[in-house]
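pasting for ref
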Amino acid sequence: MLVNKLNFTLETKLRKTLPIIFKLLSSEVNSHRETLMKRGLPKQKPIDGVKTIILVSSGKGGVGKSTIASNIAAGIKLIHPEKHVGLLDADIFGPSIPSMMNLHDKPFLTEKNLMEPLVNYGIKCMSFGFLIEEGSPVIWRGLMVMQALEKLMRQVAWGEVDYLIVDTPPGTGDTHLSLIQNLPINGVVLVTIPQSAALEVTKRGAVMYKKLNIPIIGLVENMSIVKCPSCLKDISVFGEGAQVLADELNIELLEKLPLEPSISAAGNKGVPVVLDLNNDQAVPFKNLAKKIVNFLSVSEIENIELEK
């Protein structure tokens, strides 16, 4: 009887103390991990001539990220024609910018052995798609991919660029970490569709950027609605969840873009729809570009104030 009472007392104490012990150990492990990560991080180095770098990111593939990235670049150039705009396709396995921007030539090399960006609509573009045969698959392991990314980051003669838009691959993998660790990123635009699985993965990406102290400019909900051709009623195909996610993350829902055939058709032709002033769908993309520029302007002022 006494033994049972002692066992019961010991078990009760263990139940109370073990969670505390595990929490302390977990805290120490996380602290040690962060220390090791900071030691191993490369020093961020700007790209020569590039003033501002904006990532366009999505958790899931197929949500229209490249379409939005190309329209952001074209939109900024449209509202600020005096600015120099660049578009970097960082998706090594599935480069889309060559077709989105109707560019299919090979870049020339300068005397310093740097690649010259291809230009269309006044936007300087660089993509791994320019360096491989059209339709050829990239069957590489991680190290080769990182070497290709390094080439796109450091071996391009960008010249003067006020805004460099970076179209990243889906997910939160090596490419994203390499960009963040090597380049001073001014902000990230998150792209999702209002479907639960896509929203969940986008949330994970947002958490990653917050942990790495990358400013989140806001969230873009793509394929938000489709308009019925018969009754012209707006139909939410994938549901409505982007605003809830934006509120949860305490970020702005920048735009809700429809599932609209003319947007897709423009991309297939290699013409960003924002440049078609006769198309109503140009308006939200133009507004998106304005909001991004405004966010960066405010951030720059705040950083100057902090430095004083």
